[in-house]
Amino acid sequence: MSALLQVTALTAHYGDFQALFGVDLTLDPGQTLAIIGANGAGKTTLMRAITGIARVTGGSVLLDGQRLDRMAAPEILRAGVAMVPEGRRLFPSLTVEENLRIGAHARQGSGFWTLSRICDLFPVLRDRRDHPGTALSGGQQQMVAIGRALMSNPRVLLCDELSLGLAPVVIREIYAAFPTIRDSGTAIVVVEQDIGQALKVATMVHCMMEGRITLSGPPESLGREAIHDAYFGVRHG
Ligand SMILES: Nc1ncnc2c1ncn2[C@@H]1O[C@H](COP(=O)(O)OP(=O)(O)OP(=O)(O)O)[C@@H](O)[C@H]1O
Ligand SMILES: [Mg+2]
């Protein structure tokens, strides 16, 4: 069986600065992959390279065998890769419902996710649907950002730092939606600095440092020491 998403030898640059150095990863249907790493490791750049926002300078990204790395960002979204960006980025002048409906513009045909199903997933959004997105709590805004991405009925959902700035109880509430998302047929990639949360949901973990994957494996196989070294570099002496 071929992979749903196959990233091979991916490099990316900001001007002359190289941010990714030959990243390889594979995502199978039904899988949840976690990417962890310290500040500046290249996690966001990897998400942005896959979704056509950062400049890819080498390697390839395949979705079901289809080459994404030569497509523009809107085409990649229509092909089935959606991202929940770092910092949520809702449209401040639009209501919750309008923010969600924007996600549907990239939809191809019919699919599982509708406004109603997203409100079933996060019931608070049904109550708040006429509120401006920015009148919500951080956790509720994150739910809208996830819902907006799901409205395109993606094959792959990339989530960048969902936990950032949220209370533990809210983080748990958001991650509680993951089984339903996976069961809908959408594979998930989460980027997290919160390692504990990432290890709990992931079927496979990749640790990044300085633009490279330095450690990979199923969460139960990765020891604390190994993660520490892959995260911060191996300590000498
Ligand atoms: N727009 C940009 N222009 C130039 N350099 C950038 C830009 N965005 C990121 N970088 C650099 O690329 C490297 C990787 O950054 P990236 O944001 O991908 O890391 P990250 O792992 O997501 O970090 P964080 O955990 O802080 O979000 C860093 O050295 C960063 O300074
Ligand atoms: Mg980042």
UniProtKB/TrEMBL annotation:
Q: Which GO terms describe its molecular function?
A: ATP binding; ATP hydrolysis activity; branched-chain amino acid transmembrane transporter activity
Q: Which GO terms describe its biological process?
A: L-amino acid transport
Q: Which UniProt keywords apply?
A: Amino-acid transport, ATP-binding, Nucleotide-binding, Transport
Matching PROSITE patterns, A to Z?
A: ABC_TRANSPORTER_1 (PS00211), ABC_TRANSPORTER_2 (PS50893)
Task: Provide the ABC transporter domain boundaries.
Answer: 5-235
Give the matching SUPFAM superfamilies.
P-loop containing nucleoside triphosphate hydrolases
Query: Domain of life here?
Result: Bacteria
Q: Which InterPro entries match?
A: AAA+_ATPase, ABC_transporter-like_ATP-bd, ABC_transporter-like_CS, BCAA_Transport_ATP-bd_LivF, P-loop_NTPase
Q: Which Pfam families match?
A: ABC_tran (PF00005)
Supply the SMART domains for this chain. AAA (SM00382)
Q: So where does this one cross the membrane?
A: none
Q: Entry's CDD domains?
A: ABC_TM1139_LivF_branched (cd03224)
Q: Tell me which Gene3D superfamilies the record gives.
A: P-loop containing nucleotide triphosphate hydrolases
PANTHER family in UniProt: HIGH-AFFINITY BRANCHED-CHAIN AMINO ACID TRANSPORT ATP-BINDING PROTEIN, HIGH-AFFINITY BRANCHED-CHAIN AMINO ACID TRANSPORT ATP-BINDING PROTEIN LIVF
Family classification: Belongs to the ABC transporter superfamily.
Protein's name in the database: ATP-binding cassette domain-containing protein
Q: Look up and give the organism this protein is from.
A: Paracoccus lichenicola
